Amino acid sequence: MAVADPATEQQSQVTSRPAITLALIALALVFTAWYLYAPPGAMGKATAIGYAICHRISVRSFFAGEIQLPLCARCTGIYLGLMAGVAFMAIIGRGRAGVLPPTRAIMALVLFITVMGVDGVNSYLTLLPGLPRAYEPQNWLRLLTGLLTGVAVSGLIFPVFNQTLWRNWIETPVVGNLRELAAIVLAAMIVAALVLSGNPYILYPLALISAGGVLFLMTMTNSVIFMLATRTENKAGHWRDAVVPVAAGLAISLALILLIDVGRYTVTGTWDGFVIPGT
């Protein structure tokens, strides 16, 4: 890793003020457009986020009382697992870690994704009448396999984001060993228990966190794309330096969500999920 020159860093921060202002203005404009288009209320905004990336089929979703969560059971698991994984990494001091987990941990993460893929295929077969399936799909299975995949995504994507964003990223794995991975999985299972409790007072904040997870992942991904496209990777030494790429990534993400929302609503005329014939 290159050692930052304080003089260069200070000059960079001064000259980047117009860029910061421009990025924040662009973000404000996109956010305002999306905010005005999305349904009212916090859950309405969360629904608009989920609407852009998830089928939201009611029978494959959890409900907080009579309110459907913004994401289906599997997507709820994925994005809660992602947030649980990143939160754990931040708590143990890996917030700027830029190294992938060791081989055995990566093998476990790949296994997590594979298990969800198998369950997803089996679940998809229920949409095609007459085709055999290995077992009856259940929302709790969708949730659990989604949570494991979310943990995997956090372990694979978060270090790539850090390594691209930070000039002074830390050369240590985001997950150091299987014991740390097991701790994250345990945290994810606690989240699963909270979701399966069915308590609306618990589900409501978890619903908002899951929608935030969608924005978080999209922002990380689009920030990396933005930095690579503008050749500004490894420039941030402090959070101030990260404003432009992160704001750009968030603006791009909200713009994509808005475009998909507009397109889907124009076709369907409803914020509800897709309907499975015969259900």
Overview of the structural elements:
By secondary structure, the protein is mainly alpha-helical. It has one domain. It is 67% helix and 4% strand. The protein has nine helices and four strands. The chain has helices at residues 6-15, 17-37, 42-53, 73-91, 103-124, 139-165, 178-196, 200-230, 243-268; strands at residues 63-64, 67-68, 97-99, 170-173. It has a two-stranded antiparallel ribbon. Strands 3-4 form a two-stranded parallel sheet. A hairpin with a 2-residue loop joins strand 1 and strand 2. Helix 3 (42-53) crosses helix 9 (243-268), helix 4 (73-91) packs across helix 6 (139-165) and helix 4 crosses helix 7 (178-196). The longest helix has 31 residues, at 200-230. Residues 1-15 have low confidence and may be disordered.
Labels describing this entry:
single chain; mainly alpha; two-stranded antiparallel sheet; two-stranded parallel sheet; 9 helices; globular
Shape: globular
Order of helices and strands: HHHEEHEHHEHHH
Count up the domains: 1
Q: Could you give the order of strands across the largest sheet?
A: 1-2
What class, by secondary structure content?
mainly alpha
The pLDDT mean sits at: 92
**Tally of alpha and pi helices:** 9
Describe the sheet with the most strands: 2 strands, antiparallel
Helix content: 55-70%
Distance between the termini: 56 Å
DSSP E strands, number: 4
Strand content is: under 5%
Taking Cα atoms only, what radius of gyration do you get, to the nearest Å? Answer: 20 Å
As residue ranges, the low-confidence spans are 1-15
